[in-house]
Amino acid sequence: MSAEKAESDMEYSDSDGSEAGYEDYYNCQPWGDADNEVEKADQTRRDPEYAIHDCLRVEEVERLLNENVEVLSNSLHITPSLAKVLLHTHDWALQEVMTKYRDNASSLLISSRIKPSQPPDPTSASKGRKGGTCTVCMALFNPDKFATLTCGHSFCKDCWCMHFEVQITQGISTDIGCMAQNCEVLVPEDFVLQLLTKPSMRDKYQHFAFRDYVKSHPQLRFCPGPNCQIVMRSKELRAKRVQCQACRTVFCLRCGTDYHAPTDCNIIKKWLTKCADDSETSNYISAHTKDCPKCHVCIEKNGGCNHMQCYGCKAEFCWMCLNDWKAHGSEYYECSRYKDNPNIGNESVHAQAREALKKYLHYYERWENHSKSLKLEEQTLEKMKSRINQKVMDASGTWIDWQHLFEAASLLARCRYTLQYTYPYAYYMESGPRKALFEYQQAQLEAEIENLSWKIERAETTDRGDLENQMDIAEKRRQTLLKDFLESDEPSDKLLHP
């Protein structure tokens, strides 16, 4: 990628200030949700990062949940409201709840914060009341204006309603408890809806309750897309990639964040939290313009490729380390690898802090660089479309003749996206042979990505064979880095805590 002269006041910025998302680069691929189980199985074999799933609308999810409630209610001869509480507090494990209830109903109810059924107690109606009044507002007892929970605590309906509204305003629904002091009994859904008087509060309660039911279900996950109502259903919520049919958002099925292979869910959460910490990121001023290492003219990176060529002196160098590109093929491993200070243990506290910050910035700069490269390569793709349109108009080949360029651009995006997420993983790895091997493989992918990016930006029809060969090499390097992640998505136990 050539570099152009930058004005002294020029700064690099994304058009919308946001990170590039996986869906921005992959929607051109036929990765949409398959229509049947056979197609989904075939898609999984073709793409091991893909998770078999269904995209459900709200009414479909409600029907799924209600079917379980109905089965439990009919089998155990309990109210649907009680059945829903039992299922929710036991992660919708229908068979497990049925077995536990038949073995020891009282124990199950107590563990679910439900008061077991007992013989009628003539004094139960007075619990929560003192001297014939509501102990909250001191209103005189009136059978028509008081409501008693299964635990026997009785309060006036107005106080119950106010209690529910306060809880709902705070976003609480299925975890609303009895008002009585030291009573942990949960208030069932029918009891709440019976006493809520405002339609808006009833709607909020049902909305929050639905949210809680989905979150507690082991096979359901809300789509994180903006204002999207779709719920993903999968037999196993593994850390694999899914795409919403409605809003086209791509995310990790397990944690709901942007897809992050080969970094696992726990590590990416730690990394994003660390990156959001102003105490560290404020020390990092991203070098969006750099000086040419040969003629020292200020240049700006205007493409995704890290193989740079100075606009003035034509010197070719690496954007990250500024070394000569000709010798870079053999030294790329050193460019992507962080070198620990062997004497850091003997340094002062301040020196150790500086070293820790230096290490963080090493990985953060590369993480951020690949994110920005994805954005720039999106612009390159748009330019490519215009160029191909012009060639087709000039009768220089057909769209089919140029299709391989779009396939190459899509593969480049996949590789660079994967490479971006190798840096948080490497940052938290302990030093040793395992990390050395991972960083070697990381460097190999990085080198092949830059070669692919360089070829794509200069590709013509005569270069097709060379380009497709480079695509094959890059994808194999990417799969090598993903191998451990795809075979086991359990959280890594090889973490540092810098």
UniProtKB/TrEMBL annotation:
<feature type="coiled-coil region">
    <location>
        <begin position="442"/>
        <end position="484"/>
    </location>
</feature>
<dbReference type="Pfam" id="PF26000">
    <property type="entry name" value="UBA_ARIH2_N"/>
</dbReference>
<dbReference type="InterPro" id="IPR001841">
    <property type="entry name" value="Znf_RING"/>
</dbReference>
<keyword id="KW-0175">Coiled coil</keyword>
<keyword id="KW-0539">Nucleus</keyword>
<keyword id="KW-0862">Zinc</keyword>
<dbReference type="Pfam" id="PF19422">
    <property type="entry name" value="Ariadne"/>
</dbReference>
<feature type="domain" description="RING-type">
    <location>
        <begin position="130"/>
        <end position="339"/>
    </location>
</feature>
<dbReference type="InterPro" id="IPR002867">
    <property type="entry name" value="IBR_dom"/>
</dbReference>
<dbReference type="InterPro" id="IPR044066">
    <property type="entry name" value="TRIAD_supradom"/>
</dbReference>
<dbReference type="GO" id="GO:0008270">
    <property type="term" value="F:zinc ion binding"/>
</dbReference>
<comment type="similarity">
    <text>Belongs to the RBR family. Ariadne subfamily.</text>
</comment>
<keyword id="KW-0677">Repeat</keyword>
<dbReference type="Pfam" id="PF01485">
    <property type="entry name" value="IBR"/>
</dbReference>
<dbReference type="GO" id="GO:0005634">
    <property type="term" value="C:nucleus"/>
</dbReference>
<dbReference type="InterPro" id="IPR047555">
    <property type="entry name" value="BRcat_RBR_TRIAD1"/>
</dbReference>
<dbReference type="GO" id="GO:0061630">
    <property type="term" value="F:ubiquitin protein ligase activity"/>
</dbReference>
<feature type="domain" description="RING-type">
    <location>
        <begin position="134"/>
        <end position="159"/>
    </location>
</feature>
<keyword id="KW-0833">Ubl conjugation pathway</keyword>
<dbReference type="InterPro" id="IPR045840">
    <property type="entry name" value="Ariadne"/>
</dbReference>
<keyword id="KW-0863">Zinc-finger</keyword>
<dbReference type="Pfam" id="PF22191">
    <property type="entry name" value="IBR_1"/>
</dbReference>
<dbReference type="InterPro" id="IPR047556">
    <property type="entry name" value="Rcat_RBR_TRIAD1"/>
</dbReference>
<dbReference type="InterPro" id="IPR013083">
    <property type="entry name" value="Znf_RING/FYVE/PHD"/>
</dbReference>
<keyword id="KW-0808">Transferase</keyword>
<keyword id="KW-0479">Metal-binding</keyword>
<protein>
    <recommendedName>
        <fullName>RBR-type E3 ubiquitin transferase</fullName>
        <ecNumber>2.3.2.31</ecNumber>
    </recommendedName>
</protein>
<dbReference type="InterPro" id="IPR031127">
    <property type="entry name" value="E3_UB_ligase_RBR"/>
</dbReference>
<feature type="region of interest" description="Disordered">
    <location>
        <begin position="1"/>
        <end position="29"/>
    </location>
</feature>
<dbReference type="GO" id="GO:0016567">
    <property type="term" value="P:protein ubiquitination"/>
</dbReference>
